[in-house]
UniProtKB/TrEMBL annotation:
InterPro entries associated with the record: HNH_nuc
Name of the featured protein: 5-methylcytosine-specific restriction protein A
Species the sequence originates in: Yoonia sediminilitoris
């Protein structure tokens, strides 16, 4: 029976599988990318999901074989790409091992090293289980019942209405209230806040998109991952997206000049770390442009675009905390955009010199 594998949001991938008692057959990818005859374009994503879901449910894999018509006359042992006694610990290691072995099956003798197709038709044996049980385990739905992904997806044009201000507000909401119950924890990547806290990127973007579009945006409405508008917008808003369990010290963002300015003063260093947070800075600038139509210095009123003659002059505008004194900033101090000022670099340095003098006197 034909099924299609679904992603983590329940939307069908372009990946067809045949499911029989104890057997999963993933059809090969074919056709040039972007061409009308391309088929099973989500082959790699589907195989990763199938392997992960089998391992997560402790379903034992008895073996896997290349099953394409061109190699079916070969002995089974020569086209076996996975053995019961050599299963690695993780699904990603399993995917890599199968892909590499798949490339070698049926490869022409004169093919260069590393060459070969890793998107072939394969058969995975998992033992005596019913068709329905297998389909449920790997997240597959009958092909004739699948709804095209584009029927519920938001367009890239709609998603790009999300600004740095929306992203910052979404992060603030999640830190206070937690992510929406519609979104689960992240699986592969984390978004790091300016303070170094790890949040699920898709949950952050979903809430930001809800703010931008004025409607509830659920996980089915967009994709996340490297190269998607979701990750692109989050990164342009000033946030780092890193593989899970990777952390980055916010102090890495400080320049040599910044470190000289603080001279080991913990209060000044805390202030500067907050001030150098890219997410907060870009959110403030986005809000300021929305309100005033342009960036300018709130202290001396200098318009950098007028002074320098082009948009590159906006780099002279920096963001500064001005409402809360450094001495009053506790470790869990919450900053609002109204607590910030947009200052030109000259005024910003002048204000910092005053702060340093006051800190020295205290």
């Amino acid at each position: 029976m034909e099924f299609v594998v679904t992603d983590n949001e329940g939307l069908p991938l372009d990946a067809t599988v045949e499911v029989e008692s104890g057997t999963i057959i993933l059809r090969s990818r074919g056709g040039a990318a972007g061409s009308p005859n391309a088929r099973n374009r989500d082959y790699s994503t589907a195989l990763r999901l199938i392997l992960r879901r089998l391992l997560d449910q402790s379903i034992e894999i008895e073996g896997a074989w290349v099953d394409s018509s061109r190699v079916q006359q070969m002995p089974l042992g020569e086209r076996q790409i996975l053995f019961r006694d050599d299963l690695p610990e993780t699904s990603e290691q399993l995917f890599t091992r199968m892909s590499r072995r798949m490339q070698a099956v049926g490869r022409l003798p004169d093919a260069g090293p590393g060459r070969g197709n890793s998107n072939k038709r394969i058969r995975i044996e998992i033992g005596a289980r019913s068709t329905g049980d297998i389909a449920h385990a790997i997240g597959a739905i009958p092909k004739d019942r699948s709804v095209p992904r584009h029927a519920v997806r938001l367009s890239a044009e709609q998603l790009r209405k999300v600004t740095a201000e929306h992203v910052w507000q979404a992060i603030s909401n999640i830190l206070l209230e937690g992510p929406s119950e519609n979104y689960g924890p992240s699986t592969d990547y984390d978004l790091l806040t300016d303070a170094g806290l790890a949040l699920p990127p898709k949950a952050v973007f979903g809430q930001a998109a809800s703010l931008a579009l004025g409607r509830i945006v659920g996980p089915n409405h967009f994709s996340a991952g490297l190269g998607t508008p979701c990750f692109d917008i989050l990164q342009k808003a000033g946030y780092r997206i890193v593989p899970k369990r990777e952390t980055i010290d916010p102090a890495e963002e400080l320049s040599a000049g910044d470190k000289v300015w603080t001279e080991g003063n913990v209060r000044l260093l805390t202030h500067l770390r907050r001030e150098r947070g890219h997410g907060l800075s870009r959110a403030k600038k986005a809000e300021f442009i929305r309100k005033h139509g342009r960036l300018f210095c709130e202290r001396c009123k200098m318009d950098p675009v007028v002074v320098f003659g082009d948009q590159y002059g906006e780099a002279c505008i920096e963001v500064h905390h001005h409402k809360t004194a450094v001495a009053e900033m506790g470790t869990r101090h919450e900053t609002r955009l109204d607590d910030l000022q947009c200052l030109c670099a000259n005024c910003h340095r002048y204000v910092h010199r005053i702060m340093k003098s006051v800190a020295a006197d205290n």
